[in-house]
Amino acid sequence: MEAMKSARKNDTEDVGSDLSEQIKAATKDNHVRAENTTLMLDYQKGKITLPQYKLLLCSLYEIYRALEEELDRNASHPAVAPIYFPQELARLQTLEKDLEHFLGSEWRQRVIVPAATVRYQERIRRIGAESPDLLVAHAYTRYLGDLSGGQVLGKITQKSLGLSSKDGLSFFLFPGVSSPHRFKQLFRSRMNSIELTEGRREEMLREANTSFLLNIQVFDDLQKMLSVTRTEAEDQSEGDAVKSKNMFPSLPSMKFTVGVCVALTTVGLGFYAL
Q1: Separation of alpha carbons 84 and 226, rounded Å
Q2: Which of 119, 141, 191, 264 is deepest in the core (most CB within 10 A)?
Q3: Which residues 6+ apart lie within 8 Å of 230 measured at CB?
Q4: Residue 183 and residue 186: Cα distance in Å, rounded?
Q5: What is the pLDDT of residues 106-142, one digit of tens each?
Q6: Distant-in-sequence, close-in-space partners of 261: CB < 8 Å, separation ≥ 6
Q7: pTM for the model
């Protein structure tokens, strides 16, 4: 543990005192781990189905509900206020719109999420209550990731699903941001203006890594579940295979597996250009 802390400190010293650059340097290794998963590469190849995308929306909805409710609740906190951009960045309403488009008016009763998403939610809720300044690390990795990869992911998803319009793809759109590049610069500048003690800065860097690790853990769990559900699927009869075309497969493990696959792939792809 001490060795890891030392290495992180050296990295941040090399990039100067800007918090955004220090986070980028401190999370470099986990960034590489996230971008080199098999699931990540599969998404980039356009391997996504409509059932997967529906479950993706469910997972993202729960993550953003926790994040944005905590940001709203702590909007006046000295560390949160500088990076609080609900009009430009909020994703919750876009996700609600997409879920209603695909799942219907009763979509709230059809939301399914994996245990890993619950763990992510719990982490965000806990720091929102106990250490609101650490929400900055999650906002940085989540929102800037979406701004970086959103346009590309939207096009990949639309093409993969054969959608003729942008209906159901609101999550990837940021109408309040005219230039993602300039807005990311503004966001980083606001982050860098936050006053932190050396100890809290170290906590911020650790929390940014926690954000990555939570996602990597989901990939690991997903890979294990995929090996099981693929075997189960191969053993099903043709009639069972037809049933599996329903939005949510009957097996709980399959419900979780597909949703996590796409949700975390999206998270990771966005991280590339932080």
Answers
A1: 38
A2: 264
A3: none
A4: 5
A5: 999 998 888 888 999 999 999 999 999 999 999 998 8
A6: 39, 52, 222, 226
A7: 0.79
